């Protein structure tokens, strides 16, 4: 069965973006960059792929990407219909009619849990990438199989958390994880993989 993997950059204090949703403070330069491009070539946005020599590079880990409206809006604000035209992309929003569309891009108000369960049940394909944001991760917390984090040597103090506050509802259970591996880079970035341990 396909897995849902939350693969995202995060600060040391657990934020994936600042309070306004910006994430351009995460360092792109450094020895972690080439490693990420080599291991996750499909995570490079479509408008950068050709200049990095990735135009013909097939996906290695993911063939489908999921995101909330705010994450997708970054591409829209750049004049793009899709940030990841080389992947099957789902954008979850309560206002699907005011976003541009293109082939391979599904903009939907459907329940994300139902969509993920359907995608997981597909008989073939690579894994599913949850790339943001924190509110969508909160909604999908029971469906997340792995966290793969690019932990950056930054402290924000405030912003959009890795998992939105809705997950902390009364009676919510913890999500126990086991670290499968980690790698430290000279840039100060640490890449770490966590899987559900129960």
From TrEMBL:
What InterPro entries does the record point to?
A: DHFR-like_dom_sf (IPR024072), RibDG_C (IPR002734), Riboflavin_Biosynth_HTPR (IPR050765)
SUPFAM superfamilies in the cross-refs: Dihydrofolate reductase-like
Where does the secretion signal sit in this chain?
A: none
Which Pfam family is one of those matched by this entry? RibD_C
Q: Where is the Bacterial bifunctional deaminase-reductase C-terminal domain?
A: 89-165
Read off the PANTHER family from this record. Answer: 2,5-DIAMINO-6-RIBOSYLAMINO-4(3H)-PYRIMIDINONE 5'-PHOSPHATE REDUCTASE (PTHR38011:SF11), DIHYDROFOLATE REDUCTASE FAMILY PROTEIN (AFU_ORTHOLOGUE AFUA_8G06820) (PTHR38011)
Q: State the protein's name.
A: Dihydrofolate reductase family protein
Organism of origin is Dietzia aurantiaca
The record lists the lineage as: Bacteria, Bacillati, Actinomycetota, Actinomycetes, Mycobacteriales
């Amino acid at each position: 069965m396909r897995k849902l993997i939350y693969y995202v950059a995060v600060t040391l204090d657990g934020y994936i973006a600042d309070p306004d949703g910006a994430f351009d403070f995460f360092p792109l330069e450094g020895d972690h960059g080439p490693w990420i491009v080599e291991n996750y070539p499909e995570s490079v946005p479509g408008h950068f792929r050709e200049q990095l020599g990735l135009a013909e590079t097939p996906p290695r880990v993911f063939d489908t990407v999921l995101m909330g409206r705010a994450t997708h809006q970054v591409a829209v604000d750049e004049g793009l219909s899709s940030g990841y035209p080389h992947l099957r992309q789902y954008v979850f929003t309560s206002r699907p009619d005011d976003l541009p569309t293109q082939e391979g891009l599904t903009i939907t108000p459907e329940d994300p849990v139902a969509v993920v369960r359907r995608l997981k049940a597909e008989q073939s394909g690579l894994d599913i990438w949850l790339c943001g944001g924190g509110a969508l991760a909160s909604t999908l917390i029971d469906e997340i199989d792995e966290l793969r984090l690019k932990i950056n040597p930054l402290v924000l103090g405030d912003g959009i958390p890795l998992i939105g506050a809705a997950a902390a509802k009364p009676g919510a259970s913890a999500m126990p994880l086991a670290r499968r591996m980690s790698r430290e880079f000279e840039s100060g970035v640490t890449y770490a993989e966590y899987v559900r341990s129960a």
